[in-house]
Design a protein that fits this description.
Layout: E1 5-9, E2 16-20, E3 25-29, H1 32-38, E4 43-49, E5 53-57, E6 61-66, E7 69-73, E8 80-85, E9 91-95, E10 109-111
Parallel strand pairs: 3-10
Antiparallel strand pairs: 1-2, 2-5, 3-4, 4-9, 6-7, 7-8, 8-9
Protein backbone atom coordinates (compact mmCIF):
# COMPACT_ATOMS: atom_id res chain seq x y z
CA UNK A 1 0.00 0.00 0.00
CA UNK A 2 1.33 3.46 -0.91
CA UNK A 3 1.50 6.14 1.74
CA UNK A 4 -0.06 9.49 0.94
CA UNK A 5 2.53 12.14 0.11
CA UNK A 6 1.55 15.80 0.10
CA UNK A 7 3.82 18.71 -0.70
CA UNK A 8 3.68 22.44 -0.35
CA UNK A 9 5.66 25.58 0.19
CA UNK A 10 5.80 29.32 0.36
CA UNK A 11 4.73 31.93 -2.20
CA UNK A 12 8.22 32.51 -3.64
CA UNK A 13 9.21 28.81 -3.66
CA UNK A 14 12.28 29.24 -1.45
CA UNK A 15 10.91 26.90 1.24
CA UNK A 16 9.28 23.57 0.38
CA UNK A 17 8.03 20.72 2.59
CA UNK A 18 6.62 17.20 2.36
CA UNK A 19 4.05 15.41 4.51
CA UNK A 20 4.09 11.61 4.40
CA UNK A 21 0.99 9.84 5.71
CA UNK A 22 -2.61 10.77 6.34
CA UNK A 23 -3.34 13.91 8.36
CA UNK A 24 -4.38 13.46 11.97
CA UNK A 25 -6.86 16.30 11.66
CA UNK A 26 -7.98 19.34 9.68
CA UNK A 27 -9.15 22.48 11.44
CA UNK A 28 -10.15 26.05 10.75
CA UNK A 29 -8.87 28.22 13.59
CA UNK A 30 -10.31 31.60 14.56
CA UNK A 31 -7.98 32.41 17.49
CA UNK A 32 -6.43 35.86 17.73
CA UNK A 33 -2.88 34.48 17.66
CA UNK A 34 -3.36 32.58 14.37
CA UNK A 35 -5.19 35.52 12.81
CA UNK A 36 -2.39 37.91 13.75
CA UNK A 37 0.38 35.57 12.58
CA UNK A 38 -1.29 35.02 9.20
CA UNK A 39 -2.89 38.42 8.68
CA UNK A 40 -6.11 36.59 7.87
CA UNK A 41 -9.59 36.30 9.44
CA UNK A 42 -9.02 32.58 10.13
CA UNK A 43 -6.41 29.93 9.34
CA UNK A 44 -6.93 26.40 8.06
CA UNK A 45 -4.52 23.79 9.39
CA UNK A 46 -3.57 20.23 8.44
CA UNK A 47 -2.29 18.38 11.50
CA UNK A 48 0.44 15.92 10.49
CA UNK A 49 2.57 13.42 12.37
CA UNK A 50 5.91 15.07 13.21
CA UNK A 51 7.83 12.04 11.95
CA UNK A 52 6.08 12.37 8.57
CA UNK A 53 6.94 16.04 8.08
CA UNK A 54 10.14 17.42 6.55
CA UNK A 55 11.36 20.59 4.92
CA UNK A 56 12.73 19.58 1.50
CA UNK A 57 14.09 22.91 0.24
CA UNK A 58 15.24 26.05 2.00
CA UNK A 59 15.24 26.73 5.71
CA UNK A 60 12.36 28.63 7.30
CA UNK A 61 12.74 31.37 9.87
CA UNK A 62 11.34 30.52 13.29
CA UNK A 63 9.53 32.70 15.82
CA UNK A 64 8.34 31.90 19.36
CA UNK A 65 4.89 33.51 19.48
CA UNK A 66 4.46 32.31 23.08
CA UNK A 67 6.67 30.32 25.47
CA UNK A 68 5.55 26.92 24.12
CA UNK A 69 4.69 27.82 20.49
CA UNK A 70 7.06 28.07 17.53
CA UNK A 71 5.86 29.36 14.16
CA UNK A 72 7.90 28.90 10.98
CA UNK A 73 7.72 31.08 7.89
CA UNK A 74 9.67 31.92 4.75
CA UNK A 75 12.30 34.56 5.47
CA UNK A 76 12.16 35.80 1.87
CA UNK A 77 8.43 36.22 1.15
CA UNK A 78 6.98 35.94 4.68
CA UNK A 79 4.54 33.09 4.01
CA UNK A 80 3.54 31.48 7.33
CA UNK A 81 4.00 27.70 7.07
CA UNK A 82 4.15 25.68 10.29
CA UNK A 83 2.98 25.80 13.91
CA UNK A 84 4.59 23.58 16.55
CA UNK A 85 3.68 23.30 20.21
CA UNK A 86 6.07 21.96 22.84
CA UNK A 87 2.92 20.47 24.42
CA UNK A 88 2.26 18.36 21.29
CA UNK A 89 5.71 17.31 20.03
CA UNK A 90 4.28 14.39 18.04
CA UNK A 91 2.46 16.64 15.53
CA UNK A 92 3.12 19.57 13.21
CA UNK A 93 0.35 21.92 12.10
CA UNK A 94 0.80 23.04 8.49
CA UNK A 95 -1.16 25.92 6.97
CA UNK A 96 -3.52 24.23 4.54
CA UNK A 97 -3.37 27.04 1.96
CA UNK A 98 0.39 26.43 1.51
CA UNK A 99 -0.18 22.88 0.26
CA UNK A 100 0.07 22.30 -3.48
CA UNK A 101 -3.47 20.82 -3.36
CA UNK A 102 -5.27 22.55 -0.47
CA UNK A 103 -8.69 21.46 -1.76
CA UNK A 104 -7.75 17.88 -0.82
CA UNK A 105 -7.77 18.89 2.87
CA UNK A 106 -11.04 20.65 3.77
CA UNK A 107 -11.55 21.48 7.45
CA UNK A 108 -13.48 18.96 9.52
CA UNK A 109 -14.09 21.34 12.47
CA UNK A 110 -13.84 25.01 13.41
CA UNK A 111 -12.02 25.93 16.61
CA UNK A 112 -11.67 29.02 18.78
CA UNK A 113 -14.96 30.43 17.45
CA UNK A 114 -15.19 32.40 20.69
CA UNK A 115 -12.42 34.64 19.29
CA UNK A 116 -13.66 34.85 15.69
CA UNK A 117 -14.19 38.19 14.02
CA UNK A 118 -17.81 39.30 14.29
CA UNK A 119 -18.21 39.57 10.52
CA UNK A 120 -16.79 36.15 9.65
CA UNK A 121 -19.38 33.46 8.96
CA UNK A 122 -18.82 29.94 10.28
CA UNK A 123 -19.71 26.84 8.27
CA UNK A 124 -22.88 25.40 9.87
CA UNK A 125 -22.05 21.96 8.43
CA UNK A 126 -18.91 21.69 10.61
CA UNK A 127 -18.67 21.06 14.36
CA UNK A 128 -17.91 24.32 16.17
CA UNK A 129 -15.75 24.70 19.28
CA UNK A 130 -15.56 27.90 21.33
CA UNK A 131 -11.99 26.97 22.25
CA UNK A 132 -9.88 23.96 21.28
CA UNK A 133 -11.65 20.82 20.12
CA UNK A 134 -9.65 18.97 22.80
CA UNK A 135 -11.76 20.49 25.57
Amino acid sequence: MNERISEGGCLCGAVRYRITGEPRGRTLCHCESCRSAAGAPSVAWVIAAAEGFAFTAGAPKRFRSSPHIERSFCGACGTPLVYRSDRRPDVVDVQTATLDDPDAFPPEREIWTGEKLAWEVVNPALPQFVRSSKG
